[in-house]
Amino acid sequence: MTSQVDQSEAVDGSDGDEGRSGPGGGRSGPVVPVAPQHRGAKPIRRLDRVIIRFAGDSGDGMQLTGDRFTSETASFGNDLSTLPNFPAEIRAPAGTLPGVSSFQLHFADHDILTPGDAPNVLVAMNPAALKANLPDLPRGAEIIVNTDEFTKRALAKVGYGADPLGDGSLQGFHLHKVPLTTLTLEALKDSGLARKDAERAKNMFALGLLSWMYHRPTHGTESFLRTKFAKKPQIAEANISAFRAGWNFGETTETFAVSYEVPPAKLPPGRYRNISGNLALSYGLIAASRRSGLPLYLGSYPITPASDILHELSRHKNFGVRTFQAEDEIAGIGAALGAAFGGALGVTTTSGPGVALKSETIGLAVSLELPLLVVDIQRGGPSTGLPTKTEQADLLQAMFGRNGEAPVPIVAPATPAECFDAALEAARIAVTYRTPVFLLSDGYLANGSEPWRIPAVDELPAIEPDFATAPNREDGEFWPYQRDPRTLARPWALPGTPGLEHRIGGIEKQDGTGNISYDPANHDLMVRTRQAKVDGIAVPDTGVDDPDGEARVLVLGWGSTYGPITAAVRRVRADGGRIAQAHLRHLNPFPADLGTVLRSYDKVVVPEMNLGQLALLLRARYLVDAESYNQVRGLPFKAAQLADVLWAAIGALDEEDNR
What beta strand segments (E) does 335-470 contain? Predict the structure, then answer.
C-alpha cells in the first residue's frame, strides 16, 4: 500500500535560522519517496527539520537513546547538531529535578548550526523530566510521556499538586500518553529477564517509537545492541525486542496518526561520519602524530568533560599512541613534558580545575621552550563548579594564569568537527615554534556532535619537527638556545644525540648557551624574546562575513559560540538587517589585521559564555569599545536570544543617527 501525505502547513513559529516549528518539527512539504519497510496506511508529512529532546532520570539511558537516534540520523544523511545535558552525579537522585538527564538532537535537510532553541518533540520518561523541560517547549510541540511513572508519589516529589496529564495544563501541546514501562514488560514477558531488568529496556521502546515516527534506519541500532551486549546475548535480544516493539506500536496504534519524513541534506561530496568534539580532537591528535612522525604521548588525569579523550586515545596503540593515567594532574603534565623532552608529541588533557594545578609545569615548558599541547575542555566554575555544564571562562587563565611573563599560544575550535583541525593547528604551532600551546574546547563542543567529512591524508598539513642532529656553532659546540631567525624557535635536540649534550631547567638561561644566568639584561632579553616568538606566530587574517560591505555592526565570537552567533546572523539578515560576523580561532596571538577590522565598524558586539574575557582583551589591546553580551548559565546561547541582541545594537546606531 502506498503512503499518504498530509499537506497541511505546520504552525508558523520561527526558531533561529533553521526553519519553522510546529507539530512534529519544521515546514511541511511535498511527498517524498519512502523506503518500502516504512510504508503503511498512515499519512507521512515531509518536514525540513526537527528538534527532539529525550529526557528522564540519569539511569533511564537517555544519553544512549539520543546517541543511537543521532547515529541513525547521520547514516540517513541529515545534517545534525546535538546537545547532551546530564547531572554531575554518576547516578543522580531518581525522580528529582536535579536528576534529570536529557539529550537534544536537531536534524534537517539543510545546513544547520545549533541543537535548536526549543524542541518540537519532548519524550519525558517521568514527571521530573516533564517539569524540568516544559518551559523550553513552544506551544504546539509534541509531548510523549511515560504514563506509568506518573504516580502520586512521583508527582509529589517534583511539586505537582495535580496530575498535569489530566488537569488541562498541557492543552496547548499535542500530548501522547504512552505506558512505556507496561508495553516494554509485555513485549519482554517471554524473555526470561527479571522485571527490573526488563524495565530498563523502556528507553529502547521509546527509541523504536521515535525511529518509526521519523523514519530512521533500524539496522545500525540492532547491530550496535548485539555488539554492546555481546557477552550477554539475552540482554541484547531483549533490548532489540523492545526496540522493535516500539516501532510496531507506532505503526499500529491510533495514538500516532501521522509520521514524518526529513529528507537527507545536500552536503559537499565526500565520506562522512557523525563525530563528537572529543572524538574529533582525539583523531586530530593522532593525525598530528602521524603527520609529524612523532610518537603521541598523553599524560592525563581523568576529569569531566575531558576524560573521553584519554579513553579514546588508549584504544590506538596500533598508531604508536601511549597513554598514561597519572595519579594527579601535576603528574600527568609532568610526564607529558618529559615525553616532549624525549622527542614525543606531548599532550595533557584536563578542564579548568586541572589547568590551575598544571600551571607551574606549563611555566616550566615555557622556560624549556619545548612543544607541549595543553587541552582544556572548559566547564562551569569556579572550583568544582558545574562539572557537566559548559562555559568558556578559562580564556584569561590560559592567557595569564602563570607566574612571571609566560606567554602561550591559544587555539579555540568553533564546532565539534573543527576540533580535529584545531588539534592539528595546535600541534603545528607547538612543534614549529617550540612552545606549549593551549587548545580551548568546552563541554558543549566535547559532547555535542555533527557530521564530519573525513579528510584524505594528503589534505592534512605536514608538520616538521626538524630535530637538531649536529652542533650549531663553528667551534663544534651546541648551543641549545641559539634561535631560528624566522621563528625564534630554539633547537630540539633528542637526549643521547652525540655532541648535543645540554642543560635545561626552570632557572633563567643565558641567551644562546643555555647556561644558568641571573644577569638582569639577559633576563630582560629572554623575556622579550619568548614574547616575540609567540607574537610572531603566523596565523591567518581575520575572516569577515559582510555580504554587501555595508554593515555597521560586527559580531565577534570565539569557540563554541560560533553556531548560535551564525544562526542569529542568518536570522537578522533574513529579516532585512545588515550585520557583519567574524570568529576567532587564534586567541594568542590575534590575527595581525584584527585591530583594523574592529575599527572599521561603528559597533562591535562580543557574545561570550563568561563575563567578558575576550572583550576585555580587545579593549586593552586595540582601544575599541567592544560591547559584551554575556551568559554563564552552563548552557549555550539561543539563536533567537542573540538575534534580539544584534537587532538592539543595530537599532542603537539608528537612534544615534536620528538625534
Answer: 345-350, 372-378, 410-411, 436-442, 449-453
